[in-house]
Design a protein that fits this description.
alpha+beta, Immunoglobulin-like, 7-stranded mixed sheet, about 40% strand
């Protein structure tokens, strides 16, 4: 009986989880985005996040042919969410398609029935590119290579290209553009990339963009069909007007090339070998136009499309009670670098420093989101006050002109409070006396003058001339001047001692290089990390021992350190760090834990050498 009750409860939980799950139905092209090559097969998938009772899809008049399908598959998973068991079902229908002619075609939506409800998928705009004749030649060449060992596979000069793709080549100063370092390849199988050198982005404020799950897609490039792989992407903001050049980057592509040679055991994998192909991009130039004249007085360095609004948490308060005045700047552009608007408040308000909150995301048009500025204001006196509207000037890049947005004005009713400036809720200060009148104390008005008790007055002091304090005014500056001259001459002498100065700054220079290594470690840039640690160790030893960096070897480092009576353990530790760096620069598979350990070892070794020397 208990088992039956438990089974019913579990079934209800599973059913509830399935009902609460939101059903989605989407169509997608697998492997190449929404771009394919004529004559090349591709997969069209319709995915329903539920069990499917009926599926309908008509592909007869969409411009592309269905070779086979649909093939259906169902996947079920269970998970615990919020203490409840959730059942997820996914049904996928797959077609194998081919496009015969180039052009742009629309793949229609499909319909699926699940649980008595009908769901409709999205349509797909499919771009079909003309077939690349060079690919056919390469495939023919590969077949010939398999029949003739003398003609091994080759790599054409245009088979692998590194390009810096720009979303715009002409922008205004401060306008956002997207730069994508992308590798284009055809007729080749690229297994991995190494020795990546990113382009020089001097002249721009750069913000790296998250590419997410990166996959190669089919694109048209220089009139031919390529596979495109984005290596890195940045959001750029030009810092000055004029032509700004982007220096090219470079990578080394590891390509699998057919050799035509067979092993004794006729292993098919022995006919291919990995070849390192260095690829360097070309320099790109961005034309940056200066901002046009006629900036409004309220211009806040905003470039893009923006709006502004304001709100007051309450329009009826008591004196000395706080109220929040909030300004929200929303839009797309250089939102991160927009200056904060400056509202004008009545003189009787006490205003605290604003608190700014930026909620943003990066996209191809710049930084989108909102910047919220909150002012805490405290009215000190009763009355009716007006907070005037705030103007916000920005440059609209689409219209090519300055625009001004404005918030609304607010009226704040302030009632008398028990804790106002008078202490009695009247909003005024009442001084006792028959002929005294009430005076309202404002932010900078003249206050009432109080009478002074004559008993508190003191006679005028004797003149300072001839006293001890008088002579100290001469003695102290003279002494300080003597110390200043002494330290000045001492510093001149130390600066003239180049060898001593190099030795003294060895630890400081090494520490700076280790900071660069720490930054590279945080970004998981292995090449930069090991290069910085290697420079820190060799540079420290060279500066500390006054030896030319080119004269340093493992044996010379050991010999010189032992001469200075450094423990053998520290010497061995120093050599080990240097050798590890030199080895790791050619072994990119080192994990992050080993890098952390090496960084700590290098810092500890330099510290021990500093104490020993």
């Amino acid at each position: 009986m208990m088992k039956q009750i438990f089974s019913v409860i579990v079934t209800l939980l599973f059913t509830t989880g399935a009902i609460l799950a939101q059903v989605t139905f989407k169509a997608s092209v697998q492997g190449g985005g929404n771009t394919v090559e004529a004559g090349t097969r591709f997969q069209l998938e319709y995915e329903l996040s539920a069990t499917c009772d009926n599926f309908e899809c008509d592909l007869s008049n969409c411009g592309v042919r269905a070779i086979s399908g649909p093939f259906s598959s169902t996947y079920m998973s269970r998970s615990i969410s919020g203490g409840k068991s959730v059942v997820s079902n996914t049904t996928t229908y797959t077609y194998v398609m081919v496009a015969d002619k180039e052009g742009t075609y629309t793949i229609p939506a499909a319909k699926a029935v699940s649980g008595g409800k009908t769901y409709t998928s999205n349509t797909i705009e499919l771009k079909v590119l003309a077939a690349d004749p060079s690919k056919k030649q390469a495939q023919s060449g590969n077949r010939q290579n398999r029949n003739s060992a003398s003609s091994a596979g080759t790599i054409g000069k245009d088979d692998i290209v590194l390009s810096m793709d720009l979303s715009k080549t002409t922008v205004y100063e401060g306008e956002a553009l997207v730069a994508t370092m992308k590798l284009y390849f055809r007729n080749q199988n690229i297994s991995t990339l190494s020795d990546v050198k990113f382009p020089d982005l001097e002249g721009f404020t750069a913000q790296e963009m998250d590419l997410g799950d990166v996959q190669a897609t089919t694109e048209e490039f220089r009139g031919s069909v390529y596979r495109a792989y984005p290596v890195r992407q940045w959001l750029l903001f030009p810092q000055h007007a004029g032509d700004i050049s982007i220096k090219p980057g470079s990578v080394t592509a590891i390509v699998q090339v057919y050799t035509g040679r067979h092993s004794f055991w006729d292993d098919p994998f022995s006919t291919y070998q990995n070849v390192q192909v260095p690829v360097t991009g070309k320099e790109r130039t961005v034309r940056v136009k200066p901002m046009p004249a006629g900036k409004p007085a309220s211009y806040m360095n905003a470039i893009g499309d923006f709006s502004i609004k304001s709100e007051l948490t309450s329009d009826h308060v008591k004196a000395n009670d706080a109220v929040i005045y909030r300004i929200t700047v929303e839009g797309t552009g250089n939102l991160k670098y927009v200056r904060e608007p400056q509202p004008e408040f009545p003189a009787d308000f006490e205003v605290y420093d604003p608190k700014t909150d930026l909620k943003s995301r990066t996209g191809r048009n710049g930084i989108s989101g909102k910047k919220i500025i909150e002012y805490t204001i405290i009215p000190r006196f009763a009355g009716t006050f007006t907070i005037p509207p705030v103007e916000f000037g920005y440059f609209d890049t689409k219209a090519g002109a300055y625009k001004t947005a404005q918030t609304q004005a607010f009226t704040l009713e302030v009632e008398k409070g028990a804790g106002d400036a008078s202490g009695n809720g009247s909003g005024s200060i009442d001084f006792s006396g028959s002929n005294q009148e009430r005076i309202k104390v404002l932010g900078s008005d003249i206050r009432y003058l109080h009478n002074i008790d004559t008993d508190q007055l003191q006679p005028e002091k004797a003149p300072m001339f001839g006293t001890d304090s008088y002579w100290l005014w001469f003695l102290v500056p003279t002494t300080l001047l003597g110390f200043a001259l002494y330290y000045y001459r001492r510093n001149l002498k130390l600066r003239a001692d180049i060898v001593g100065q190099r030795t003294r700054k060895a630890n400081k220079v090494a520490t700076k290089r280790l900071k660069s290594a720490a930054a590279a470690l945080k970004q998981q840039d292995k090449a930069a990390f090991y290069e910085s640690v290697h420079k820190a160790m060799l540079g420290y030893v060279a500066d500390k021992l006054n030896i030319q960096l080119s004269d340093l070897t493992g044996d010379s480092i050991q010999e010189e350190l032992l001469k200075r009576k450094v423990d053998q353990e520290i010497v061995d530790q120093c050599k080990q760090v240097i050798e590890t760096c030199e080895f790791a620069r050619y072994a990119p598979s080192t994990d992050a834990q080993a890098m952390d350990k090496l960084y700590d070892e290098a810092a500890r070794t330099i510290d021990r050498l500093e104490k020993a020397l």
